[in-house]
Design a protein that fits this description.
Helix content is 34%, strand content 22%. It is built from 5 helices and 6 strands, in the order ααβαβββαββα. A 6-stranded mixed beta sheet has the order 1-5-6-4-3-2. It is globular and about 25 Å long. The protein starts with a helix and ends with a helix.
């Protein structure tokens, strides 16, 4: 089974389990089942059926700063670094939600796992302060320090 199929299957199973175990407290609090998925065991996944553009994030209040070359992140179509609520947020766009899961999540996890205090003289990789990431439709968002750095922005995105 290919990695894409396996990752898609795991994501669907997580959503199915979360749906089956929905608590009325979660529903009454206005939190979606997708938002309730435990981020410690899987990426946080939001707005599965939506496709976003840079303008979607700008409309939500994100300030774009610098565009990165997509050659550094295979299968991405666009990469932007910017700010929201005084936090660094990098946004990596993909053709689809499935592509973001298959190609974006492994690289995002690698970035999160990287120790920012590690010093490597002569290394070609950049040190990051990203402590979490979220998959938002066709986008992988890299969040400074923790997921809460991205949550307000995610909630402010325009809905279809």
């Amino acid at each position: 089974m290919s990695k894409l199929h396996l990752l898609t299957l795991v994501s669907l199973m997580i959503i199915a389990v979360a749906s089956a175990c929905t608590d009325t407290d979660i529903e009454s609090a206005g939190i979606s089942v997708e938002d309730a998925v435990d981020a410690s065991t899987s990426p946080s996944i939001f707005h599965v059926d939506q496709t976003f553009t840079t303008d979607s994030f700008i409309a939500a209040g994100w300030k774009k700063s610098k565009e990165y070359d997509t050659a550094t992140v295979p299968e991405s179509t666009e990469i932007w670094y910017g700010f929201f609520n005084q936090k660094d947020i990098e946004i990596r766009f993909y053709e689809s939600h499935e592509s973001a899961l298959a190609h974006g999540v492994p690289l995002a996890q690698e970035s999160v796992d990287q120790d920012p205090s590690h010093t490597c003289h002569g290394c070609q990789y950049a040190q990051t302060g990203y402590g979490a990431y979220a998959v938002v439709g066709n986008v992988v968002m890299m969040c400074e320090l923790e997921l809460s750095s991205c949550e307000t922005l995610i909630n402010d995105l325009p809905k279809d």
